[in-house]
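Batch 3, record 17
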Amino acid sequence: GRDAPGPRLPRPPGAAAFNLSEYLRRFLTPRGECELHDFRLSFRQLRWDSWIVAPQRYNPRYCQGRCPRAVRHRYGSPLHTLVQNVISEKLDAAVPAPSCVPAAYDPLSVLTVEPDASIAYKEYDNMIATRCTCR
Amino acid sequence: SWASGGEAQSAASVKLEPEAAPRSLLQPVDGAHSSGLLPPFFKVRSGGRGGAPPRLQPDSRALRYMKKLYKTYATKEGVPKPTRSHLYNTVRLFTPHSPQKYASGGQVTGAAPSAPLRFSLGRVAAVERLLKSVLLYAASGSPGARCAGSLTASGPRSSGRALPVGARLQLGDDRRGLELDVTQLLQPLVAAGTRSIRLSVNVTCGGGADRAVRAPPSLLLYLNDTSAQAHRRPRFRAARSPRRPGLHRAAAACAPAKSAQRPRR
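Prediction for the assembled complex:
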């Protein structure tokens, strides 16, 4: 019963500008809550373009946002997260509140020039975050 | 294409500079030695600042070929395409040492020169299992040209093993480059961890492919990296590989026919 009142739903704009997916996104993920963010970088920025030939750009994405008090079903969080939240709030503030972290990843294909001038195509797991969770 | 580059030349399309930056990002803040913690993707890059030898430049044709292979296998963002059906997650291309010697021995009679090609396979990791290996020639002549002759492969300590060639020169998966399958020959050498192999290719091809086999080929290894960092494909997808008829049949037995797919709810 101590839960904060649910987020105020943004009012759908006029029919002409009505964007259902955007409306649903705001409804499902209130502003500031744990969600996936883009972070686009080019390997040139890291000066890794001397050995990474492709892709030239990479979006590993990241998770950021606060975890709601009552962790919702959409995060797929274990009961432990709920318990940790209660401990953090009610018993000991030194125990951290649950963190917003990646829950699933996509692989990344990388083409590299090896030190001996051979060329390698390789697929690496867990290189792009695709879903976030509270843990 | 593989053939369009003409003479083999040093790659100009990649800028090859001394490495910088990654080392600081990849080392733990406490300064502990990190080589055991980093995945292979980064490990090989993080150790070589200062005393590392200058990086060699790849062959430009080889690089073009691999870039096209990359486009076939991955999206522009670098995500492996879900439609592909192969079992391997690593492809390595090696160019031979001293290919000039090979080319200068070319004969006009149609028989390929037999000067040995030396390939250094030092980059092949122990966790990489060889699935297929081919000699890759520039694409010219008829793709189905019949070749005859022999191939000999040897490591530094082995006496050499000959394989009679009576196969067709296949046009590669991506329709670029003519491929001569040498898997049977190289499998024991790669499995034994041989770092340097010599290949003597003595083949004659019909159908206008002779010109192609006179130029020094590159060695293409299709590998399955079994380490934890490598991307592992779901079994059901791998089983659809046309290269593995046994698995293909097994998959067909388990999976419903395309026409009988589950109806939408």
